[in-house]
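In this supplementary section we document a worked example of the pipeline. Step one takes a protein sequence of length 142 as its only input; no multiple sequence alignment statistics are reported here. Step two produces a three-dimensional model, which step three serialises into structure tokens for compact storage. The input and output of this example are shown verbatim.
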Amino acid sequence: MKEKPEVVYHGSQYKFDVVEPRMANGQCETESQMGIYAAATMEETIPFALPFRYYPDKPGGRLSRDTEGINSYLQYGSINPHGKGYVYVLPSDSFELVDEWQWVSRVPVKPIKVIEISVEDYWHTISFSEEAMAIQRELYGE
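The serialised model returned by step three reads:
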């Protein structure tokens, strides 16, 4: 059993005073629970903090991306190169380990700290499919 860290990290495109449990859309039951998902390191949450967007950015739009560690692969959708995201430092008291790296809390958690991150600082961690690159050019230019 992995030792519980004192704090865990949660990435989001949105800034909150309190992080609330939400229904997750994962690839398996473990990744699709109602809760706040977090990791033991900040780096693991960066892809979830980056503001990837549906294309078109309205009902009926689509977003497809994969994440491995700190790196993200955008298959379809967009990301504002000048956008911001947020990493929440959370007390781990209410979190339980649900797989090799993800911790989940089923109750709201007040952050110890909120770290604003810039897409520009993590641009090198994002790769694009040809289709996603065409969308990027259409929305943001070269």
